[in-house]
UniProtKB/TrEMBL annotation:
It comes from the Bacteria. This is Uncharacterized protein.
Length: 505
């Protein structure tokens, strides 16, 4: 009898402790196949959620490497180290590029490097490496709003004369990689091109950005200011059908001027540069000091670069700021902490992106206004993945004037993520963006609206409050799984990257 009772008790306990399987759910726009591959379901117009996996250093096709050290520097502990560092950089800049595209790494040994001005890297193939945030410290000393470390090339994006052709399709949907042009004989595989989407008066009018409620300084949108140039590379030419390496991320309609394609060059950009493994701080006089280090690391006219394993403190604007002329940069495993400035506009944009095809992942930020943010006419795809923000003072998301094609994937914040018509904020921010995708994010609250023309914005599996945004009466974005955990895949970026790698084999 005792044996029976013991057996019964064991069965009851086993049943009681049976693990509860997590219930998964899928979007109606993306289905996960049995082998983990993804199936994209188009909307009524043919738009799909775009593939965001082709971003960052060499678009994710090349691993960030550990570059061999060619120069070692020790801090000038008794004075300013700016000349010491700049001389080392200039010395390495004279070395030839190796077969792998690098001149070499400059190792900053353990110590404190005080810098009164700005350190400039203007040649390809140079990496600044510290011995870790608890060992190598750079300090922006003294006064003056400035960027401390600047990677910069020269030149500009140029159209190759005589190569511009029209896209013939009446409608080019979001997510597609191909379209038909009037004459593809001008193009070949490997060509760098621009997909050019003109701004038109009709488009501005339909967006209602010609009648933003005016206040002092408000500027209505003008069509000529919204000629968008998406940088792409040709991967296939079949007759007059052209296939490109990254998807279209904005609807292109003939009624709004359609689109064109032309060959392009940007010869002055530098590439294969990076900064890693160090702590970077700014001196400051008070919590609201405005006259000190502003940006820790800046990229201007750079492609295929990286930032990894850095922590920044006390800067007024950003840990990392990527200008519109830069692309294919990875920023990962880094922190922006304890900003010092007045808490108002134009400050505390912890990880700021104005460029194309960039990846921000595994980041932390505190005390910012706009932690993970894009600026006006920031053209994607761009990705923010697995990032955290605490003690926030404003919102995460596209900041103003039509950012296109951004994925906010697994972002956790004690504040807001907003995609909305910002109206007359600033000098007329208006519609912040289109094809902005929130995936499995956690927020205090979020507003995701879709513009009156040009496409949709999306919220998938957002945890937190939903609100109508700053301005009432705007169209709601597409929301699925509000406060519903267990979205499959848990990360869209990771799933898309795995899917692409699988298809490359």
């Amino acid at each position: 009898m005792k044996k029976i009772l013991l057996l019964s008790t064991a069965v009851i306990l086993l049943v009681s402790f049976k693990p509860v399987l997590k219930k998964l759910w899928e979007s109606k726009y993306i289905k996960v196949n049995a082998d983990g591959s993804l199936n994209y379901i188009p909307d009524a117009k043919g738009n799909i959620i775009p593939d965001f996996s082709r971003v960052g250093y060499y678009q994710g096709d090349k691993e960030i490497t550990t570059v061999a050290v060619v120069k070692t520097v020790n801090a000038n502990e008794n004075g300013d180290s700016e000349e010491l560092l700049q001389s080392a950089i200039d010395e390495v800049a004279k070395l030839p590029l190796s077969k792998t595209g690098f001149r070499g790494a400059i190792l900053l040994k353990k110590g404190t490097y005080k810098i009164a001005g700005t350190i400039n890297i203007t040649k390809s193939g140079i990496v600044l490496r510290g011995e870790g945030e608890n060992a190598t410290k750079l300090i922006a000393t003294g006064k003056g709003q400035r960027s401390l470390i600047v990677f910069s090339g020269d030149g500009n994006l140029k159209e190759v004369a005589g190569t511009r052709v029209q896209i013939q399709d009446k409608f080019v949907p979001v997510g597609t990689f191909s379209f038909t042009v009037s004459d593809a004989s001008k193009f070949k595989v490997g060509d760098d091109i621009v997909v050019y989407r003109p701004g038109t008066d009709e488009w501005v009018k339909d967006l209602q950005m010609d009648k933003i409620e005016a206040r002092d300084g408000t500027k209505q949108w003008e069509a000529a200011g919204y000629n968008l140039q998406f940088e792409r590379k040709i991967t296939k030419v079949e007759g007059n059908k052209v296939t490109i390496d990254n998807p279209i991320v904005m609807e292109m309609e003939q009624k709004y001027g359609g689109a064109e394609v032309f060959k392009a060059s940007f010869d002055g950009r530098i590439n294969d540069v990076g900064i890693e493994n160090m702590l970077i701080e700014s001196e400051y006089a008070s919590d609201v000091d405005e006259d000190h280090g502003w940006v820790a690391v800046e990229f201007n006219k750079v492609q295929n670069a990286w930032v990894r394993n850095i922590t920044t403190r006390y800067f007024g604007y950003a840990a990392v700021s990527i200008k519109s002329t830069s692309k294919q940069i990875t920023v990962k495993d880094s922190k922006c902490l304890d900003a010092k400035s007045v808490i108002t506009g134009g400050r505390r944009y912890s990880f700021n992106n104005d460029g194309q095809l960039n990846l921000f992942m595994n980041l932390e930020s505190t005390d910012a206004r706009h932690d993970y943010v894009t600026g006006a006419k920031t053209l994607g795809p761009n990705v923010f993945y697995n990032c955290k923000a605490t003690r926030t003072h404003a919102d995460i998301g596209p900041h103003h004037r039509w950012a296109v094609g951004t994925l906010f994937d697994n972002i956790t914040t004690d504040g807001e993520i907003n995609v909305q018509d910002r109206g007359n904020w600033g000098s007329g921010h208006g519609w912040a963006g289109v094809t902005q995708v929130l995936w499995n994010c956690t927020v205090k609250r979020a507003a995701v609206q879709s513009p009156w023309a040009g496409g949709q914005n999306y919220s998938f599996g957002t945890q937190g409050g939903k609100y109508e945004g700053r301005l009432k009466g705007r169209p709601d974005g597409i929301w699925e799984g509000e406060n519903e955990k267990g979205i499959n895949p848990s990360s869209l970026y990771v799933a898309q990257l795995k899917n692409r790698k699988r298809n490359m084999k």
